[in-house]
Design a protein that fits this description.
By secondary structure, the chain is of the alpha+beta class. The protein has 2 domains: 5-114, Beta Barrel (Elongation Factor Tu (Ef-tu), domain 3); 148-239, Rossmann fold, CATH 3.40.50. Helix content is 39%, strand content 12%. It is built from 7 helices and 5 strands. The protein has a 5-stranded antiparallel β-sheet. The longest helix is centred in the N-terminal third of the chain and has 29 residues, at 5-33. 11% of the residues are buried. Its main location: cytoplasm. InterPro entries: Coronavir_polyprotein_1ab (IPR050534), DNA2/NAM7_AAA_11 (IPR041677), P-loop_NTPase (IPR027417), SMUBP-2_HCS1_1B (IPR048761).
Length: 242
């Protein structure tokens, strides 16, 4: 069944707002009901900090050490640099407008990060505005408004073709090799699906290596987390892909 892009965007933004609200409430509840020492043990708070200098990441709240109330926060800022002995926070306010005693002590607590929320919302709103280039057709395919194009007949990747496909990773099993061939022959979109631990990332890496080295493509590889990106990059380094 075809989906309406505007309805999808509206519903998703509504759900995103609920998620954001819940994240803020959870952070506020932790700050008000959990002791600073316990928050530090959980890795979301740093205690007994003192100011070394003032100059005009993660979002953090800056407050007096003995305050458990979010309302008593002095300010919030972004962690811009971390070393073994110091942590640098960038504030929106100038040094003159921040009212606190340099002697401290203070605490920093990790807050709900609105950067990701804003970027997702911006991307959703942009989704309804694409009118030029390849994006409109791809969006129509993804939302079921038009059927996908016929598979490309790329000789090395056609199943049962005359020219055999040479895989860079010779440890791929049959299902992984089939997924690589399938993905590289699709005009718009291909889905590699499977339970955890079945080698999906390994398969995607082979697809990227084949696309870059054999088909001379430029590939933008994305993942939903930093860990997933790191995992993919580590495997790509072994394939000597730039």
């Amino acid at each position: 069944m075809a989906a309406d892009v505007s309805q999808f965007v509206g519903k998703t933004i509504s759900l995103l707002s609920l998620e954001r609200k819940a994240e803020i409430e959870e952070t506020k509840s932790l700050q008000e009901n959990v002791s600073p020492k316990e928050l530090q043990r959980r890795g979301v708070c740093l205690l007994k900090l003192r100011i070394r200098s003032r100059r005009t990441g993660d979002i953090v709240g800056f407050s007096w050490l003995n305050s458990n109330q979010a309302a008593n926060d002095i300010s919030s800022g972004i962690v811009s640099r971390v070393s073994q002995t110091a942590l640098t926070v960038a504030f929106d306010e100038t040094a003159d407008t921040l009212t606190f005693d340099d002697d401290g002590p203070f605490k920093l607590i990790k807050l709900a990060n609105d950067v990701t929320h804003k970027r997702i919302k911006s991307a959703l709103n942009t989704l309804t505005k694409y009118r030029e280039g390849p994006a409109p057709h791809l969006i129509d395919v993804l939302f079921g408004n038009v059927p996908p194009g016929a598979p490309l007949q790329i000789k090395p990747f056609v199943e049962g073709g005359e020219m055999p496909c040479i895989f860079f990773n010779d440890s791929l099993d049959d299902s992984q090799r089939q997924a690589v061939r399938f993905a590289l022959c699709q005009r718009e979109v291909a889905i590699v699906h499977g339970p955890p631990g079945t080698g999906k990332t390994t398969t995607v890496v082979e697809i990227i290596v084949q696309a870059v080295k054999n088909l001379k493509m430029k590939v933008l590889a994305c993942a939903p987390s930093n860990f997933a990106v790191d995992n993919m990059v580590e495997k790509l380094i072994k394939g000597k892909v730039k």
